[in-house]
């Protein structure tokens, strides 16, 4: 378009113009190319272009892209006019006179009116540019300074009211405040800062909002500094402006706001002055009504912000920041970790740590090995890795400074390097200390992870270069991590029960150039033979360990002698073939003594390594024959286990020809269990090996892996999926089949690439054929189909479309009428189950969504099918489709409006448009059926379920409200009036996606109008709807809108209260009505809300009347339905609010009324009352009320129901006065007898708690028989605190102990009864319980007894041990108890018996697994020896017996070595206890050490 054409656009009427973005682009280019003089010389250009732009900016009839082009053009126009005005004052005056006020307003208001245009990106940048240039032009052309100032102030006032979710609005405020000053902001909007905090909830706007707030505050700070001569005064006044608001949010519950503040706002504020950070920390500590833990966490957070912002370089751990030392011992591991990160990490990794920082970390680093939470442990490992990187980088920098003499303090730098080396040496030794057998899982996992990090960072020079991470720095020193003993310990960890530990151990060992202690072929062969022995184990972790051991041996043996790997593989395969031969004769014998899984695992490991592939490249015939043998073996194994795994009930199947006589004697597992385990594990490992061989070796031997063979083995794997009935077996084949199909689809050969496609058609045929027998959810057939689709989703997406549509068509096929149709699996069932698997598979999620619409329709139609199998698989398919559509399952009963993962109705129906008319049609049909015969079509339930998962479609500014679901609302409202209760419930939840939250009050008022004309079902449905709406929307109301809501809705509830609570309404309706008031109105205690308070009082009056005046009940029996649960709700309301409203008569105290509720005729009321008292913070005072106490005693009697008796007994343990126990007529012997029986567990636990409290009072009275009862009680506590007992049982034992009480006398003269010395040991057991809640409860009580503040568990335990030893260490009874704990193991006391028992190896599939993964046997022994006296004759005698047995059992052992008997954790622990106790009691171990060194036993026994 030439210049004339552009100019012609500016002339005449613009309303007829149909403009596109290209036209505005031409105008923009025209403005750019026009010289500045042209604007002043040719006055018509400015005026005509001004009119043109003014018209289209004021009348936004253009589409989005054209509007954006218009903005860009206007921006260029403003710049050209601005430049012309600067050059010509006359033109400047002409511009001011020509431009109308409305045009300025239009441009200035663009951030408010055009911040977003649907479907267009980059709008805010264009608007920001327009606003900036408009303001520049206005300030240049306006001749009146007062007018300028007033305009700027008006603009600022307006912009403060605009929606700050638009970043351009924030920019506008930032620009304007620089002209107006910060005082203007606070004069227009005094709550500017608190308002801004609300916008920080959305992290995407947090930076813009924070920049705006900081701009205002920084300008205000400059003003204050100019105002006051004293900078301290200016800082204090400035902080008083923002600090209270920031602190409120800092200690609030909104994590999004806190994240936004900490990332952007607070670092900027703290950087204003060096004094701000300490003042802010001080303000955090002084903040009222906040717990110490919260203050500590907040201070750590603030310090981290300051350190990340480089406002603090080094922490002063001796003075200003000394509190960090104590926080490293905090009870919360997350605070400990945050404290560690603060000290150890730094944005500049070259910054060295100080000696004080090293000392602090080293003295408290033990916390790292006790973190039980997996997420926290992962964060710790990442932090430690970063810490090590910082040590390496800082030492590298210091060494470089020393080398080139760049540092003025070279001696100090050398000291820091030396201190770093000492710290790492200490840390490595600490890690190795936690690798001993029996150390707990967390300790071992953490230690290995940390060692792995150090290995990859280049600390040990023996590590292969390829195993190290890329690095820019290197340590100026080397530390040897792996020696002979550590190598032995890591090899022993290869048979750990946990695969993560096995993998980490192997990775560390393989990282080295050589294996310390295994440098010769003979040493490696010895280790290899140990691995072979483990391959023959029936236990999975031992097989895995054996396989990893042989991989380790192959790696290092190949370095010493080429060809070792092939010889080893050949040997393993020969042993495997022998075991297969045994299985052909007797499957049971093979399952017990000749398993094959270990050998298969090892072969898979071997062929997965890159070194094996290098052997295959040589095209060696030996390897070729070996591979052919493995391929043949896969079919042999299948024939062995086929009969077992393909049985309709494989779990209990024992083949008829299997004779278990003489084989199954003394077996811990049943023959059927052994055979099944052997079978499914064998197929699992052979499928893995087969896929590995096919994928890794096919390119090396094309004659072996030709088209027919590859096709054959693909069909073999599919046949496994088709025929196997054992779910564990075919699900283990599935990933192997997917890998193989992916390999084929990735082949460059066209024939091989298309090979799986015919397999898919064959699977479809199988679906149609497999209808003569019953399978479990179609067995592996769906996996066979899905596996091909997963593998081919990238290469051949058409497959998915054809398959899903074919399965849907097959599912819709009409079933021929047959009385036996429901007794067999139909093709339709297989097809629907296959669809379910396809939509469940996460790897197909992105492509399967396209077919969600027909699948949902299919599932909904299946709900109404006459055959149960079709209905059943329709339910499963629908569930899978909902999870694929909406994400994870939501908790039952949760309204989806609060679920951020939910989809809005607009989004859902935009993604799946065909569902809207379909669902509307189906819903209309279902509602008509429901209305005509009062029966819900089963297809109604999935539709309602789907709507209950949707959210309301909120609109953006300038966007029209979406009305796509308006037709559904009357239909769903009809469902809420259904006679079927479940339909009403789901329909009420479904309505939540149709109601705008801003109309909540109007909706609730409308629902509760004219209730007197409603039927029971209609009223019940309306109340359900009101409850659902309140659950999802009430929390969104704030400020005045919330007050108005409570006022209007309370008035409505008052008007319908008498009608709903009248006798003509069912008790279910009344209960629901009370629940609504209880949940959303009774807890709102605003005294100024008069109508609300009236509603609360009326509710309390009603509850009291209905509970205590039977004349208020209906006269007819059938109207009593639902009365008990109604009374339960009334009781809950009455009890929760009785104190506030003082609801009791002059003659009846509150205690009397509560006692009446405890004796109520409905047990629901009694349970509600008991639960209320149990949860009450002043329950002890309540229980000691005489009337309540007598009611509880009545409930605790034998004949009472256990659900009532158990909480009553638990409450009675809080009785404070001994006379009350006498009135209960308790018998200790009877209580103990009941606790030890098999009666109701809750009753026994409650009696145990009561027993602890009762014994305390008997002791205080000086009862003569109390000692016998006491020791019985102690035995019960020891039994109930056992790690294998249930959590509730262990918690009851702790509660019983706390009720009795533990104390430490200051001296031995204060001990009147020596039996109390046992109690600290029992509490110590709970302090080391596996459950963190129990540990924390025990630690809290221990801190109370020790009179110390809350500390971390480890520190509490250390103090508890010290106090226990100091108070009771000299008592003979205490020493006897400690000695018994040391000596007894697995029920045996003599060391010789223990060793003999543990050396007798069984062949059970599973070992007894320890439940306590927190407290290891190793730690327990160390702690017990802390108490034990070295002069104990009992321990000396036990040790002598143990030493004698060690010599007896190990004297004939030639070489034990790694993975030997002394490496078995059970054997190790018994021997270690003997040796460790012997050292403690000073018994000579020279002969034992000499023997252990001779047989190369575990290193812990050799020195």
UniProtKB/TrEMBL annotation:
Assigned keywords, A-Z: tRNA processing
An example Gene Ontology CC term for this record: cytosol
Pfam family, one: DUF2428
Domain of life of the organism encoding this protein: Eukaryota
Domain tRNA (32-2'-O)-methyltransferase regulator THADA-like C-terminal TPR repeats region: 871-1029
Record-level GO BP terms: tRNA methylation
Keyword tRNA processing among UniProt keywords: yes
Segments forming domain tRNA (32-2'-O)-methyltransferase regulator THADA-like TPR repeats region: 238-503
The DUF2428 domain, residue ranges: 626-868
Family in the record: Belongs to the THADA family.
Protein's recorded name: tRNA (Cytosine 32-2'-O)-methyltransferase regulator Trm732
